[in-house]
Amino acid sequence: MRIELQNLTNTRNILLAGAALLGFLLPYLGIGSFILRLLITYYLYVMMTALWNFIGGFVGLLSLGQAAFFGLGAYTYAYLVVLGMNPLLAMMMSMLLSIILALITIPTFRLRADYFALGTMVLPFITQYTLENVGGLSIICLLYTSPSPRDRQ
Description:
Blueprint lengths: L4 H21 L7 H27 L6 H17 L4 H18 L9 H20 L5 H7 L3 H4 L1
Helix pairs in contact: 3-4, 3-5, 3-6
């Protein structure tokens, strides 16, 4: 029995769309907070694995800068949610800021082999120092000193 590749591709796309839809609907399904946190962590690791597979596997480059994109998105999201923004809108804004950082780093793709790894290794440090030293953006201090939304109620 021969299975056509086109049918497998369509089935895979349907399964991926269903998993993405399930991921978006999880907070509204009324499941427990532990399971929700576990599934969110699972989705984060799946996204990081897919990114590493693309950069390291398909393109063949050693990129050490994923921490900058991941960290900037996480810090932006936390900062905006602590300030009272809608979590979905904060997620979109954090993705937009990570995309802007990615557009700034496009020239690093001209580097080859070890130089590309060194060029991307600097990016998390630059992002960290910028977030720590720009006035009013010290998210670490803000998160540790401000009450959580659960404490405000």
